[in-house]
């Protein structure tokens, strides 16, 4: 599979992989921007991306250095094959200090993932059975609860 990049401004920087074996392609900020603590901003990368295989979609992820060291995360990031406009990166500053992004900083990474689109069937009862089911809700696996 191939993918093409269109620069939408003179300040746009083409995505790169950190090494030959990197799964992700780094996205860069074409501007200086500051994200206050607890806030989020969409940083437009000034690049548009197209690819030739509709069995794949693009997903934008946090870079580990930004997520771990700076406590900033990518909030959203599914890009479908028919989106051919400026790619934006929504960053959330989870730290207690402003997150300063300089023009040319790597702000996120994208990878291509195989798309699965199962048919939706409305039912009154599930026909798929399992040997056991969970009783807990969000974030309940691997957690012991003490009832009081």
TrEMBL record:
Enumerate the Pfam families for this protein: dUTPase
What are the recorded Gene Ontology BP terms? dUMP biosynthetic process; dUTP catabolic process
Q: What is its EC number?
A: 3.6.1.23
Keywords for this protein = Hydrolase, Nucleotide metabolism
InterPro entries linked to this entry:
dUTPase, dUTPase-like, dUTPase-like_sf, dUTPase_trimeric
What GO molecular functions are on record for this protein?
Answer: dUTP diphosphatase activity; magnesium ion binding
UniProt keyword Hydrolase, yes or no: yes
Its top-level enzyme class, in one word, is hydrolase
Q: Does the keyword Hydrolase apply?
A: yes
Q: Which residues form the dUTPase-like domain?
A: 12-142
What NCBIfam families is this protein classified in?
A: dut
Q: Which family does it belong to?
A: Belongs to the dUTPase family.
Task: Report what the protein is called.
Answer: dUTP diphosphatase
Q: Which organism is it from?
A: viral metagenome
